[in-house]
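Curious: can you check?
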Amino acid sequence: MKKTLLLAGAAAAIFVLAAILTAPANPPESEYEIKSSELGGQTGAELMEYYNPEKYPLTPFEETTDYSRIKKGFTGKLEKIEKGTAFDYYIIITPQLLEPLAQELTAYKRAVKNDLGYKTATLICDNCSPQDIRASIQEGYQTGLKGALMIGDIPLAWYGSSQSNAYPTSYYYQDVDGEWLDGNQDGIFDRHQGDTGQEIFVGWLKSNDLTLTNETEVELLENYFEKNAAYRNGQLSFGEENIIFSDDVISSGLSLIQILPFANHVYSLFTTSASDYAPALHEGYKTVYVDAHSNPWVHGFTEADIVGQGCEWYNPSTSQGPNVKRCYNSFSNEDLAPAKLKVLIYLLNGCHVGRLTEQDNLANWYIFQKEGGLSATAATISISSGYYVSYAAKIAENKIFGEAFLETQNNKKESVLFGDPTLRANYPSVYESIIVDETNVAGEENGATVEITSKETSPVSATLEIYLNEESILNETLTIASPGETVEFSFTPAPGFNTLAACLTMNQKTWCSRTETMGVSPTLEINEDNYVLDCAAQGLNPRLGWDGIGIKVNAKNATIQNCELATFGVHLSITEGEGLTIKNNKFYNEKNYAYGYLTPYGPLTAPIKNAVISGNNITGLSVGLGFVEYYENTLISDNVFSGEMACYLLRLRGTLTNNLIIRDNKFCATVNENAFQLECDHELDEYAINEAESTGNQIDLVSPCTSGWPVYGEHYSNCIQQEQTP
């Protein structure tokens, strides 16, 4: 099925900007304060320590509780409480949890029986070894065992070529008939041979090492089983939407939006930040896919920032220039433990996130959230992007998590399934998405399509209702047969951002797909010489765009003043630049997209000369004054560049530039790690800039011209304060 992805980019002829979907609006800042983001202002060298192994070392194998239990070897099979030999499912639990959880376990076993027909046995791990557990599982597999749930401080086997690269693995229990060898008898399996595929699934509920709240091990487990029962009974839901939170890793997210229904993909430099992550997850989602650099306790999210401006960690391996480095801030276990996130299923694509032998590790805290958290997948070592895409495809088919894990994680010894493996996602079998025409002119009738996907084997009856800005504009009863239906409709957007929702009602249950669309203000064209466009005086503000052009200049001696343009693909297009005046305008970004240009936009029919660009406030665009050439006797002064921009604020290029004066501007927006706030092209003539008059600017990141302009202290100083457009 085709999924809708709203494009936020400038015209393709100049620059291609990746698609961005914003996260939900942030709740009050004080409610979800990121405790670990208080290290701003330190130097890159100091902050690098935040992520390194010396500051956050992994626990050596010999210091884990697993070590002594593994070294014991096989001491005997586990005690089984229930009589009989043929069981589908094992609960393997430590003895101290049996009595406190007796009521929860009884109800849970009954629910598993009702949902799957599984007959469950309870096995007691009383200081047992991994060898004892595996022997018991092997015995059960002979009579039909399909899976197991580990509850409490259950030991894990370890695998690796040496102690330095060894990691805990649940796979030792999942592979029933493979041969595991420990050549040097150090307790770490270093060879796995024979039939190495997995035969059963295993889930983990391990709360004994969670110390960041006041809840005890038992209380955390009691709360988990309460959530579990509520979900099975249809009393726990955070809606049908899913979110893909890829920290600047696009490929896996693009795969997942084709797999998960109602999936939003968030991956821009500016929206996958630590400060955006928790608020997004408080909005309520069924599934979250996280793709971010991590360790067992921390996710690191890239930020739009520069050295010294509030980053916890700088990655020096991705830098361009002395002051341009990839900046990270953190979402840590201390942020997660008390957060009360409203999410049920987590696909955690980060290194070491699933290292459940570490105290207060992230994956465990995700499923032991107070309100949400039923299942998580994560790995105990480093993994690559897209690691759980195949697993997501299986749970999208509404297989139980254990079966999906069994089918997709073969020979992935590092992969761990957290939570109850007998649950399923219960994604809707019939769902819809909205596809909106690329450009929708405000006040005019525009087209859109609802695509409905059906995975039902027989036709189903449903009611489709479409809302524009929360008002119903269509209500239609449909008979939907597999693979689905397409419904076309028209709507008339208001200027600016409009909300469309398509809601399906089936079997007395309703779910909705939502999207935003822009009612675009038509392009204003200047075709008459000496024309003065004063948007404020002429009642033309604000001009709101999406992917078109805000103002197009085709005549000489034009003046554009007091105009307010937001979120156009190209805010200002100039095909005739002689005598041009652009002053006291606001060009900005309405919805936190890195979006749009203020730039001469081809084809240029004449050079820009005898021009004045002054007093403008330019905020949050892709490029400020970008890819500029053929300037003569032009003054660029008193402009303020602010907010977060994707690329250059001012880029000067071309050999025909002459007597360009750049003075008293504030180039103080943040840009990505591959761009400068001001950059001179190497082909620019050394006499292009009137250096004597080009002074008083504020800039942080500079790539100077061939002549050496600008010189720090002579032509510019560093930014004092980031200014924002109201």
